[in-house]
């Protein structure tokens, strides 16, 4: 198992120390460093990220709202220079808090703890559940059956979702975040903060939009790279 890691910090000596320490740990892969939150968000949306080393001042100035992401929250290690900081009263939820400069012994200890924890989760997988080709949604007072292969797209409208199928439109009380958890990832992709589309029903793709029937659906900047990466991984784009 490899732990994919990024660093959010502007402290160059600290960054170099983490990189140097990381080179000696075979199960750790430090992929990138960021001093800008928007760049970090784009990367996290498009790449597997298990662990983030984050500077405390960076975290205070640029708070990350994990509800904006359709991923499981990575483990976070907060680094700081002020030992009197009362992090228990702060909004941050971290796996560990470390003082700068961090020692190699402390670094190894924390990484081993994370590795053991993740191996434990892997050793006790959730029981496999049979996947159906349909689902049920509430539509006013009715509960309707919807087949996955008939869905063209989902559109988020605050606390509601517009489900467009081949034959009808359904409005149901739901959020995009919750919806993404249940949809088959090999059949549906989020391409915009307000849209999840069926790969099967896409007719045309260009830089800024996809066409499904008569609908022209925008591709958001945040989702563009992960969208095309997913298509290539599924071998749906032939270069």
UniProtKB/TrEMBL annotation:
The keyword Phosphoprotein applies. Residues 4-115 form the Response regulatory domain. The keyword Acyltransferase does not apply. InterPro entries: CheY-like_superfamily, LytR-like, LytTR_DNA-bd_dom, Sig_transdc_resp-reg_receiver. It holds the Pfam family LytTR. Residues 135-207 form the HTH LytTR-type domain. Keywords: Phosphoprotein. GO terms for molecular function: DNA binding; phosphorelay response regulator activity. The modification 4-aspartylphosphate is found at residue 55. This is HTH LytTR-type domain-containing protein.
